[in-house]
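User: Hello! I'm new to structural biology and keep hearing that structure can be predicted from sequence alone. Could you demonstrate with Rubisco LSMT substrate-binding domain-containing protein? Please show me the input and the output so I can see what each looks like.

Assistant: Of course. The first part below is the input, the amino acid sequence of Rubisco LSMT substrate-binding domain-containing protein. The second part is the output, the predicted structure written as tokens.
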Amino acid sequence: MFLQGTFSMEFTCLHHKFNSPPLPHLSLPFCKSPNPRIFPRKRNNLFLASASDTVVAASRKELGSKKDNEFGDLKSWMHKNGLPPCKVVLNERTSRDEKHSPIHYIAASEDLQAGDVAFSVPNSLVVTLERVLGNETVAELLTTNKLSELACLALYLMYEKKQGKKSFWYPYIRELDRQRGRGQLAVESPLLWSQDELAYLTGSPTKAEVLERAEGIKREYNELDTVWFMSGSLFQQYPYDIPTDAFPFEIFKQAFVAVQSCVVHLQKVPLARRFALVPLGPPLLAYRSNCKAMLSAVGGAVELVVDRPYKAGEPIAVWCGPQPNSKLLINYGFVDDDNSYDRLVVEAALNTEDPRYQDKRLVVQRNGKLSVQVFHVYAGKEKEAVSDMLPYLRLGYVSDPSEMQSVLSSQGPVCPVSPCMERAVLDQLADYFNRRLAGYLTTLNEDESLLSDTNLNPRRRVATQLVRLEKKILHACLQATTELIGELPDHSVSPCPAPYAPLLK
């Protein structure tokens, strides 16, 4: 068994199983085009303009033009095209950034009770890959090959926007332009931040996640032309250039992020319909981690059943899945202070140079762990997480052949651990948490001071919220480790030497 217990104490071996996080809950809009190889290449000025003039960056002047008013607002357009009477209204609030247009949001139009259907959007107003591609087989081929659902939908939206007011989806695209991929805090995903702004996340593993996601988007962009030709141009109704000729990468990335911020992940539907753009869905709906209401496919529509009472005029919220704050920031541009799913990752690995590596690998596998093991530290459950790490780390410190043989042959849940080994394990953990805390640019007190500034830049604010919550988790882990050190019976004991100590990162 794993090494459990210390001298006179015993520790129970904990076995946690962590599933991969679900795909993000969001929503989007797009359409189709004939084979571009039979048309002369024409540059469209709209998509050769600067990023601030395209796709998800319409100006307030553009959004408020009299010509656009002929379409009415998004909800009016939907009612004209089959949306049945519903119990929501489209309201507006001022953006924190005066350069940006106000944020629209969905609110209750009357008092609602838990279990009420707030709205039911017919499938004719919902965009999925099945509808975009007109072929479920092609949709599955694309998403299992080189192009994700989000990339495909983003590309479709870009071609559809080229149609301008001729597009059926023009009112919806106009609304997405207004939202600019912003979450309910009017902050764009860090995928669109500058290098200086990404520095706000220094010390947080989220910064590396952002850079990795950005690289993934770039790889998909580089594959667009290949997929376009393989599929006979993807969208059979559009007589336009091949993708990379028509759209620069920065524009594609903006569209991708806008789609990512609002796509809805439907359950119990075919693969080609699992990602859906629902015009009354996010980001018009607020996200809340403690909410259980979700958009669901019901018959020929996507509906929302509220999970709590609402007064008329209150914003309506939906659940965005069991996502940590790092994912909420990357996907939707916000952080939830009350997120019970928030977590940090601690990666531990057995030392491959250890002569007893193979034996130790066998032991950890026997106990449901891996030679490189990821431990999830959930907010509020830091003590449990530290207790779960200890058996794994203790094993890494075993060096005596007879002790290793005892571990291999042990049938019980408890193995003796010497005081000096326990001190070495706890010291390593404490040093690890201190190093992670030292990697941030600010302290917790400095974060609190920044957040008290009402004029703080919105991107700096949300980044500070994120790193502050991460530090709280790390501080709680450090405190739990320090308390265990304090319980050691003899503080004069020096830590055992550990030539092949496990690795932590």
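User: So the tokens describe the shape?

Assistant: Right, they're a compact way of writing down the 3D structure. Reading them back into a model, for example: The first strand starts at residue 88 and ends at 93.
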